[in-house]
Amino acid sequence: MDPTLIRYFPDSDPVSKKNQRVKTKEDKRLQLPVPLPLGLLQNDRSTLTTNEWTLLSNCLYAFDEQNCYTRIQNFLNELSSLPPKLRSKPSEIVNLMRELYSTVGPLIERSPDFHSLPVDGRQVLIKHNLYSLPLGLLQNDRSTLTTNEWTLLSNCLHAFDEQNPSARIQNSLNELTSLPPKLRLKPLELTNLIRELFSSIGPLIERSSDFHSLPVNVRQILVKRNLYITGSMNGLFLCRELHVLDNMSVLNSYTQLYGCEYMIECRRKIARYDPNGSLIKIFVFILAFSSNCSLVTYDSQADLTIMSNSIHLVPIQNVYITMLWKYLIYLYGFKEAVLRFTRLIKDVLDLVNMLSQAPQTETRSRIMNPIVTETEHTLMNGN
Q1: Do 122 and 201 reside in the same domain of the chain?
Q2: Which residue pairs, CB below 8 angstroms and at least 24 apart, start in 173-178?
Q3: Fewest CB within a 10 Å sphere: which of 7, 22, 190, 222?
Q4: Which domain holds residue 176?
């Protein structure tokens, strides 16, 4: 807690009567109300932890310390003192608008959470939250995205926010953690968690109007070819966002299932994902509508006509890629956009390579195969 927030009772620091200064009229006039006791959590009926009380206190204190009211009042007084004709001039309210808007700067600057972010993370935060887009997305818009592309971008991000599997995944984590230590290490106990992580891709694809615009046979091809890689990338992204692998019970169970080296490589891949989660979310849709995003295996029984059917996916894929590319340039400029776009592609190629080297054990097949099949059937039989 901020040390200046700690207030003492008048009697908490006894002083000798000889040294005690006689109170003046000024002291009496400035005397503050009786403060709260030091032990904020004594007889506390709330569910806030000590850290949450500290965070709450620091948030309120940041506003109190910044205290911009005097400056704003001065500008209001200056504006009111002007002749009526001058008051209506836009130039005369510039200072007032500056004070009103710029007060948010010192508040953000005081937060240790802001300084804990990497530099590019801070830039994205400021770009998205401090300089927000107007209600009409294309008013004064410097990007090259069309209205339809802004709408598509918004729909992609909203699909993730609305689906929000966090609560279900957290429940699965809690169930696993509550088991006795010996049971936690059994790979089969991971089934519910893996199902929540992987199958969360289903509702995302299912919500897309582009998916429903495809002929039934093309949808079946898309699901068969792209679901495994797309679901895996989405699952790893959720692992990063929810810190799933920071849970030692989960990590130990995964290690039992996949092996130590594989899990070390898996965590390394997740750590390299772009810090801007919005880019990963959009890229998941690009993978979902890719003409082919799968592990390459030879199948002599495969129907070669599916190659011609997959051409339906190319226009959709192009729309999503164009939208992402324009959005990258809008956020970062051309040079940084190239680096981030190629990094996203490399992430997928690394994932395909990693999954192709996953240990093919009977236990893993018993867990994963039903989950993948169940998600496929849900999408194929959605309509």
Answers
A1: no
A2: 173/244, 173/247, 173/250, 176/247, 176/249, 176/250, 176/253, 177/247, 177/249
A3: 22
A4: 147-380
